[in-house]
Design brief:
It comes from Lactobacillus kitasatonis. This protein is α/β, with parallel strands linked by helices and about 900 residues long. It folds into 4 domains: about 220 residues, Aldehyde Dehydrogenase, Chain A, domain 1; about 190 residues, Aldehyde Dehydrogenase, Chain A, domain 2; about 180 residues, 3-Layer(aba) Sandwich (Rossmann fold); about 220 residues, Up-down Bundle (Dehydroquinate synthase-like, alpha domain), CATH 1.20.1090.10. It is built from 31 helices and 23 strands. Bound molecules: nicotinamide-adenine-dinucleotide. Nicotinamide-adenine-dinucleotide binds next to α18, α21, β21 and α23.
């Protein structure tokens, strides 16, 4: 008495403060319990939850009775079932779920998932399913080592407190801290709002009307709020009518229609409408006449809110009729209003939470879909839509078109929506309505939703690879392999005029002529220098007529690249040139997919010693329309067989020996320092580097054995860069070389020393590739220097000696070490250099450079290459 008096004398502000302090105290105690549970094992947690489930089950009836007495809504037997469901079905689904510590580990992927609680949860419960929701939410919280503070619906406070006490006692007896489950003793809107807004609360789990859910989301913290449903159910003409009606009557009478998933309207096809009505009547469903509908419209719905009137929800059909001034037989199960509109002007089309539904006659299934959609839009978006049908097409279409997160087929919606009873959905008393209903989740809420799941991701290098032609033949006269090559008899020989003039194509046709059995060949000599798409089209056209089973490319890089592209487009006419040259960061994850298997075999026989195209997955082709050179790169382009036969390079002109030799040297050095270099490729790179330094000048001077060595070295370097790829030297050499018509080997030679100096300084911007775990370019260059016999007391010194050695070699074979030495106009170069740098930055080779270059640095490097900075004047 004294306490009450004292309260009455408090000002509004003081009352508010008192409520705030009360809630804050609960939150503080909750945190103490949370800390205690932080070290609980899965076994401890499960023991507590099982105790809660057992207590819920044992008290299912008395709690249900108390709830009905207190709220004056619902059916004791059905509320008992709901309490049983919240204890038994929920625990059964949670029993084996891992919710503590490591819950998943994938050693292969190096990923571990660790479950941690979200923290203190504010649990808001409704009047419609009071005690069962308390059991459900408490169990979900405890299973996930969260603590929970409830704000019960004031109209169900007593029965919810009793539920709280029972499960709290059971949980504590099984080892839970006392304050793991708490509740607000004196409910009020202020108290619930304070609870949701208290900074010590980490997550809100709210079930209730739209106002409550909105308040939960407005708190600014993670909220799992689920709101109302206005679910329709459509009985389509192919349905089993008796079963559909049975389901709907069962659903609507279950706890007097208070499960939010229950049918609020039924839409029936015209053809079966009368039959359906008759069937409902056999179950004592009362059909309101027009006047009675009017009365219902006046009393059943609260005109201010447009939703079901407070006293109506959860009452029996008979009681509701009385409240609305309509006489119905006492044994009426469900009241039906035949209706034909949706929206505010048609009050009964709203959510009803009672054994009442509106019945719509649909002209056809499109009309039925329209009515169902309108009903969902009128307060039921995202919740539940039922369909009774045996027509698979209708079921699929309904599922696609309804904005509902639960599409229940041939089942009672109330008992279907909560899952586990009539289907295999997760059992839950909190049903997400997705973004349709302004909810975060669209599924039935479960334990996973109350966990913070941490992912421990171990560093993983991507799997690396080595891919080369399945066969490489070498040594003098290796071309004789063609005499015996199996399973081919239609040879399409690709070459160019220059190579044909050397008699090399004839050499090949001679060998083919000596094959036993059937053989046909055609020689295509129209490849040009740096071939373009017109040449490729021409070749594909010839191939379409000739229909080869093998393509033999004999020539330099231009011929081999052309042959690779011809085979690609001959076999894949649907692939466009633009698709084929798309770039990638990781060839395995590229957007454009290349074919995996080639029907036509490709044999490449190089007649220059440099490009490595005979083993590479690359073809460089110009666009005939724009003149731009594009790099096509995919392992689908790799030749099946390469033949490295030095008979074809014995008469190679000196300048070609020098240029292609430097192309090979560029390949070998860049592949050695590339971010994708591996122990498998570095051996090839070093072997090629050693051989080139030892033989290029001799080969240039006419030594035939040196030419053979150079020929092999170029292919070996090709194998290295086909798998390790290249770097910035090639990006610069490609762009500048093709713009100013400088032979690519020359362009490589000029850029190589500049890029080595650049890469051997600690980078400003670091290269990104998990396999490239530490910066190592400088020591890699020093390794190269040592391999070719240079000595020095530091990496720095060795790198500089390597640079000098490269310059000396280039000059010894007649290469001038600056772009200005090749007639490139200074003004023209300056005009284009910015654009060229951007192009080089985007070049595929830049991706694997050991230093990630800035565009400004590329500009500077290009300018240095133009002047031959630190090279030409230094000499
Ligand atoms: N696909 C790749 O992996 C790759 C790599 C680097 C370069 N490339 C490309 O290769 C092309 C350059 O190739 P290349 O340097 O081999 O030159 P090339 O194929 O363009 O041939 C140049 C000239 O040399 C002639 N020739 C070739 N072999 C000869 C021989 N043994 N004796 C006399 N003359 C001969 C040709 O008839 C031609 O006129 C460029 O288009 C370049 O883009 C491709």
């Amino acid at each position: 008495m004294a306490k009450t008096q004292q309260k009455e004398t408090l000002t509004e502000e003081q009352k508010k403060k008192q409520i705030y302090d009360m809630v804050d105290n609960l939150v503080k105690k909750s945190h103490v319990a949370l800390d205690e549970m932080a070290n609980f094992t899965q076994e401890q947690v499960d023991k507590i939850c099982e105790a809660v489930a057992t207590a819920g089950e044992q008290n299912a009836y008395p709690l249900a009775k108390m709830a009905v007495e207190e709220t004056k809504r619902g059916v004791v037997e059905d509320k008992t079932t709901k309490n049983m469901y919240a204890s038994e079905n929920i625990w059964n689904s949670l029993r084996h779920e891992k919710t503590v510590g490591v819950i998943d580990e994938d050693k292969e992927l190096g990923l571990t998932k660790i479950a941690e609680p979200k923290g203190v949860i504010a649990g808001v419960t409704p009047v419609t399913n009071p005690t069962s929701t308390v059991i459900f939410k408490a169990m979900l919280a405890l299973k996930t080592r969260n603590t929970i503070i409830f704000g019960f619906h004031p109209q169900a406070q007593k029965s919810c407190v009793e539920t709280g006490k029972i499960i709290q006692a059971a949980a504590v007896a099984a080892g839970a801290p006392k304050d793991a489950i708490q509740w607000i003793e004196e409910p009020s809107l202020d108290a619930t709002t304070d609870l949701m807004n208290n900074p010590g609360v980490q997550t809100i789990l709210a079930t209730g009307g739209p106002g409550m859910v909105k308040a939960a989301y407005s708190s600014g913290k993670p909220a799992i709020g689920v709101g109302p449903g206005n679910g329709p159910s459509y009985i389509e003409k192919s349905a089993n009518i008796d079963r559909a009606v049975y389901d709907i009557v069962l659903s609507k009478t279950f706890d007097n229609g208070m499960v939010c998933a229950s049918e609020n309207s039924v839409v029936v096809d015209d053809e079966i409408y009368d039959k359906v009505v008759d069937e409902f009547k056999t179950w004592n469903c009362y059909f309101l006449n027009k006047e009675e509908i009017k009365k219902f419209e006046e009393h059943f719905i609260d005109p201010r809110r447009g939703t079901v009137a407070g006293p109506v929800a959860g009452k029996s059909a008979y009681e509701i009729a009385k409240l609305c001034g309509v006489d119905v037989p006492k044994n009426t199960k469900v009241i039906v209003a035949e209706y034909n509109g949706v929206g505010r002007k048609f009050p009964l089309s709203a959510e009803k939470l009672s054994p009442v539904f509106t019945l719509y006659r649909a002209k056809n299934h499109d009309d039925a879909f329209r009515i169902c959609s309108e009903l969902l839009d009128y307060g039921g978006r995202g919740h539940t839509a039922g369909l009774h049908s045996n027509d698979k097409k209708i079921i699929d279409e309904f599922a696609m078109k309804m904005d509902a997160c639960r599409i229940l087929v041939n089942s009672p919606a109330a008992l279907g929506g909560i899952g586990d009873l009539y289907n295999n959905m997760l059992p839950s008393l909190t049903l997400g309505t997705g973004s349709y209903g302004a909810n975060t989740f669209s599924h039935n809420i479960g334990a996973k939703d109350l966990l913070n799941i941490k992912t421990v991701a171990m560093r993983r290098d991507n799997m690396q690879w080595v891919k080369v032609p399945s066969k490489t033949y070498f040594e003098h006269n290796a071309a004789n392999y063609l005499r015996h090559m199996p399973n081919v008899n239609r040879f399409f020989i690709v070459t160019d005029e220059g190579v044909a003039d050397q008699g090399f194509a004839d050499e090949i046709t001679d060998i083919i002529s000596k094959r036993r059995g059937q053989k046909e060949y055609e020689v295509f000599k129209a490849v040009t220098l740096d071939p373009n798409t017109d040449v490729i089209k021409d070749g594909v056209h010839r191939m379409n007529i000739f229909k080869p089973d093998v393509v033999i490319a004999i020539g330099g890089g231009s011929v081999m690249d052309a042959a690779k592209a011809m085979r690609l487009f001959y076999e894949n006419p649907e692939m466009s040139f633009e698709e084929a040259y798309q770039k990638f960061l990781d060839i395995r994850k590229r957007v454009v997919r290349f074919p995996k298997i080639n029907g036509v075999q490709l044999v490449c026989i190089p007649t220059t010693s440099g490009t490595g195209s005979e083993v590479s997955p690359i073809a460089i082709i110009s666009d005939a329309k724009t003149g731009i050179k594009h790099t096509l790169c995919d392992y689908a382009l790799t030749p099946d067989v390469s033949i490295v036969d030095d008979q074809f390079v014995q008469t190679l002109p000196k300048r070609l020996i020098a240029w292609s030799g430097f192309e090979a040297l560029g390949h070998a050095i860049e592949s050695y320092v590339s971010t994708m270099a591996t122990d498998f490729t570095r051996g090839w790179s070093l072997e090629a580097i050693k051989t080139i330094f030892a033989n290029l000048k001799k080969s240039y001077d006419g030594d035939l054995d040196a030419r053979k060595q150079m020929h092999d070295a170029a292919t070996i370097a090709g194998m290295a860069y086909s798998n390790a790829f290249l770097g910035l030297e090639h990006s610069i050499a490609h762009t500048v070389g093709s713009t100013f018509d400088i032979p690519s080997g020359v362009s490589d030679a000029i850029a190589l020393p500049q890029v080595i100096r650049f890469n051997s300084k600690r980078p400003e911007k670091l290269a990104m590739w998990p396999h490239y775990s530490v910066y190592r370019a400088e020591s890699d260059y020093a390794d190269i220097a040592r391999t070719i016999g240079l000595t020095g007391s530091s990496d720095d010194e060795l790198v500089e000696k390597l640079v000098k050695k490269i310059i000396d070699l280039a000059e010894s074979v007649g290469i001038k070490m600056a772009y200005k030495g090749y007639g490139v106009d200074k003004a023209e170069f300056d005009k284009k250099v910015d654009e060229l740098a951007v192009e080089a930055y985007g070049d595929q080779n830049t991706v694997t450079n050991p230093t990630a270059p800035l565009i400004s640095q590329i500009i500077q490097l290009m300018k240095d290459c133009y002047e031959g900075k630190g090279i030409v004047n230094n000499k």
